[in-house]
Amino acid sequence: MRGQAFVSFESAEIAKKALKEVRGFPLYSKPMQISFAKTRSDAVVKKLDAAHYDEHKQRRIEHKKATRYTNPIKRKYRQKRLAAEMDGGAAAPTTKRPNVQMPDEYLPPNKILFLQNLPENVSKDQLMALFSQYPNLYEVRLIPTKKDIAFVEFLDEASATVAKDALHNYKLDGENKIKITFARK
Q: Are residues 118 and 152 in the same domain?
């Protein structure tokens, strides 16, 4: 089905770890819903039990045909559609999914860094001194209305990456760790 994929792993432990790390990750503005398959995939059966692959595939196809219209979710959707058609032919209202943003930690690299959790009294000069130890610093921008965030721009992505990796979780005031991610484009 569209919007679905099956991923096989060498072991159940690796699969559990992957499921834990990726569940809910936004993909095309929707959080991924991940679960273990109820049956073995064709690829797994072909690899582990090639002699019974044809039987497995035939059983799967027959089950798919038999459950196509008995699936409770599909039955509920079909009833809604039929009810909407009887009420003047209007289509069933669709619910808009909330737009889920990608977490900052997974944003693609670029030349602008986004700093969070800065001390309230941090100055532009302090940030310039901290980041100027890395090559190609272009500009530091403080946000007047939000004292705990700032942007630091480098001339190229590689320089920004080096500075980000070196200073992420740096304690500027000795207490709070600075969170550094790539800025959203």
A: yes
List the domain range (segments joined by +) for residue 24.
12-86
Output the domain CATH number for residue 148. 3.30.70.330
CA–CA separation, 106 vs 67, rounded Å?
A: 39
User: Quick check: 137 and 120 in contact, CB under 8 A?
Assistant: no
Token pair of 178, please? 């600075």
Token pair in block for residue 132: 């100027």
Give pTM, 2 decimals. Answer: 0.50
- Report helix, strand or coil for 27: strand
Is residue 81 domain-shared with residue 132, that is, in the same domain? Answer: no
The full DSSP string for 128-148 is: HHHHTTSTTEEEEEEETTEEE
pLDDT tens-digit map of 56-106: 989 988 888 877 767 777 778 878 888 888 876 555 455 666 666 667 677
Q: How many domains does the chain have?
A: 2
